[in-house]
């Protein structure tokens, strides 16, 4: 089987890849924990859409050609968010999270204690349509950034909320640097994971 075509996402891809992420994250435990039950699917879709739009401005979204798998990254030292997008984020994030916003933000801060202090790439979200999982597509859409990390000597990081996500991260070369539980309710485990670049910045696997 030939390797899938993976490329940077473009603005016309936003509806399709946002829908892919929303469908992929629908059964992720974080989604049911973080988002109020009322209108959860709509809240999740909007969260995915805004994540894609924010990363698209820094050329940090990668997708398969068919949109079945997508990875959303935050680059090291990102530029300020455009004013119009910031206005939308300030308006829509409280609507999406509702009463869950304080505990979600506090939990993110707890998990981030294990992330690198130096500039690094942050994997914001990765998702693959259920019918195409277990074919290595998530690894493929993450590969361009991880190869760049190796070439430039920059670490990558992510936050995981299930042991399955931790196992996937370990297969990509990430290691757990901090383990905690979500704030206030302690309902979910949370792990910070870091992937150090290959020695000498010559590429390869960490």
Automatic annotation (TrEMBL):
<dbReference type="InterPro" id="IPR016181">
    <property type="entry name" value="Acyl_CoA_acyltransferase"/>
</dbReference>
<protein>
    <submittedName>
        <fullName>N-acetyltransferase</fullName>
    </submittedName>
</protein>
<dbReference type="InterPro" id="IPR052523">
    <property type="entry name" value="Trichothecene_AcTrans"/>
</dbReference>
């Amino acid at each position: 089987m030939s390797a899938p075509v993976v490329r940077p996402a473009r603005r016309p891809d936003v509806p399709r890849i946002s829908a892919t992420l929303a469908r992929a994250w629908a059964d992720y435990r974080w989604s049911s924990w973080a988002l109020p039950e009322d209108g959860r699917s709509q809240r999740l879709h909007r969260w995915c859409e805004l994540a894609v739009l924010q990363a698209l401005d820094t050329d940090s979204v990668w997708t398969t050609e068919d949109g079945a798998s997508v990875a959303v990254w935050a680059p090291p030292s990102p530029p300020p968010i455009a004013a119009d997008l910031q206005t939308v984020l300030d308006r829509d994030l409280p609507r999406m999270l509702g009463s869950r916003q304080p505990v979600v933000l506090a939990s993110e801060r707890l998990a981030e204690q294990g992330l690198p202090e130096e500039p690094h790439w942050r994997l914001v979200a990765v998702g693959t349509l259920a019918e195409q999982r277990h074919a290595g597509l998530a690894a493929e859409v993450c590969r361009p950034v991880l190869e760049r990390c190796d070439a430039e000597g920059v670490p990558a990081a992510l936050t995981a909320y299930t042991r399955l996500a931790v196992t996937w991260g370990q297969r990509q070369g990430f290691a757990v640097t901090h383990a905690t539980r979500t704030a206030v309710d302690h309902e979910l485990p949370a792990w910070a994971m870091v992937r150090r670049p290959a020695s000498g910045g010559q590429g390869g696997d960490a």
